[in-house]
Amino acid sequence: MIQVSNLAFRYSPSVVLRFPDFSVARGQHFLLLGDSGSGKTTLLHLVGGLLRNYEGSVSVDKTELATLSETALDRFRGQKIGFVFQRNHLLSALSVEQNLMMSPYLAGLPIDSGRITDVLVTLGLADKRHSRVTTLSQGQAQRVAIARAVLNKPAIIFADEPTSALDDKNCDRVISLLLEAASQHESTLIIATHDQRLKSHLTQQIQLNAS
Amino acid sequence: MTLFTLVWNYLKARPLNTAINIILLSLGIAVVTILLLFNTQLEQKITDNARGIDLVVGAKGSPLQLILCNIFHVDFPTGNINLKEAEKIARNRLVKRAIPMALGDSYQTYRIVGTSRDYADLYKGELAQGDWWDQPLDVTLGANVQSLTQLKIGDTFASSHGLTTTGDDHKDHLYKVKGVLKKNNTVLDNIILTAVESIWEVHEHADTTAHAHETRDSLAMPSRLVPSVAANDSVKEVTSLLLQYRSPMGAIQLPRIVNAQSSLQAASPAFETARLFSILGVGADIIMAFAYVLIVISGLSIFIALYNSLKERRYDMAIMRSMGATRTKLFVSVLLEGGLLTFMGSAIGLLLGHGVLMLLNALVEETQKAGIGGMVFYSQEWIILGGSLLLGLVCALIPAIQAYRTDISKVLASN
Predict the structure, then answer these.
(1) Tell me, what's the ipTM?
(2) SS3 state at B95
(3) Number of residue pairs across A and B with CB atoms under 8 Å?
(4) Helix or strand or coil: residue B241?
(5) Which of A105, A111, A116, A132 to mutate to test binding with chain B, by most B CBs within 10 Å of its CB?
(6) For the segment B90-137, what is each residue's pLDDT rounded down to a tens digit?
(7) Which of B297, B317, B319 is nearest to B309 (CA)?
(8) In angstroms, what separates the C-alpha of B346 from chain A's closest C-alpha?
(9) A57-101 tens-digit pLDDT
(10) Could you give phi then psi for residue A89, rounded to 5 degrees?
(11) Which H or E run includes B369?
């Protein structure tokens, strides 16, 4: 599903970040570990198509990302990839349901109300459907973010520090929901984190070393 | 979910900000609309009412007053002129048509105009009911006069001197209503038409012997202007003469001929109304400039609102990009937001403008008399609407370019 080889990203002419080669098969779950500054987020952005102009090769679902035009990359990202960020960033002007509707809308997919219901029920948010996102607790908001990421049944889910702002209870809940949602649609899951609590949940790891 | 819903929700999420932008713009647009409606209708009215009258001849005084009094019936007469002198002018070969006017009295502020049938023909007045005036003291009412005084055919009334209701009443000479005109949106709507002789009769009540002495001399030529009296009658007076030229030569020669006589002056409606507009225009220009300042400020305010909210929404933008939104989509969404704001502002402003004029029309009798209302629409309003939409797009352009340039990775990585 994901193949990375000789990947490097040049921040500036003199600062180059190099990444180890790795490949992840469909449905596998990986932890992306490394200290702060080791380039976890950069790698995630490169593989997720948020960052372009890399050296080497990144192939996602048999597509070399560099060959896609900007618009094609946007579309590719919307339809194949789901993101969960540390700061769960929901669109605060919209309700929970509208936030979820943005996902298929922006990806250019049909909006399926039944699918939204399913995901909300699975994540225990059925009663929050019409709430404003500003009224949610942090744990609830993170679950909405997960719901938004999995709604389009993406082939890959990238999570960047999804649990670092949560307490143990919410951390457990969020990580098991992520794993569950990923397994349900055979999505590949990659979690970039330095949160030691996650090591007990995922055994496969990619280790980055600060250069 | 559409781009419109998204933008609408963003606007709804900042209700105060959105409201102040809409209010600012709508006030500016409303003032522009009011001025547009008011000026256009007034100008149209004035040109309509002055159409067909090339020159007004009256007593010496202010030429503007002569025009206001004899054409628009809003000012007081400058004085009287001798019928004999008026006759001389009317007989000039350059004059195609001369209409005598005898003014001075009113009924419930509606002016009584002693004139000939030519005057009603000039404005294409048609009867709605009853008949034209015929005998002295017969009157035909304008449509507004009838509806506001509720006089019926056969009713009689006493006129009062001047244009106010407090003037002395001429109780011993009662006018009798013979007919009512159809409403035709000219000055005819607001006046009471009668024969020139009626005015003489009402005012000569002290001089009863004049009547006897005036029995028409069958040998004398009847007057061109008032056929019931002899030409060269040296006693009778009228207020003014409305002239129509036979040829453009009249415009060059007649005013000179008239002004050469010590007791007469000529005033051109076209020239005097243009002068009036240039005097009033200064005030209108100032209000208009003020309205434009309001609109520019509202444009700035919209720009600042979008610019600031975009700073807050950098993450929103980046998140939307991560979910598959293209740069163009974000660009369009910001333009749509600016466009929607100004569209609402200008639509409300246009409604407000029409509303204010409708209210004015309902409350102020003068605007009613002048026939200025809010239920008229001009094509320039499309220009106002289009112009303000353009303003919205221009104000949204810089924030939209910013949205277009959002560096997703950088924004998402900077916590």
Answers:
(1) 0.90
(2) strand
(3) 79
(4) strand
(5) A105
(6) 888 889 999 999 998 888 888 999 999 999 999 988 999 989 988 888
(7) B317
(8) 25
(9) 999 988 899 899 989 999 999 999 999 987 768 898 899 999 999
(10) 20, 80
(11) helix B365-370
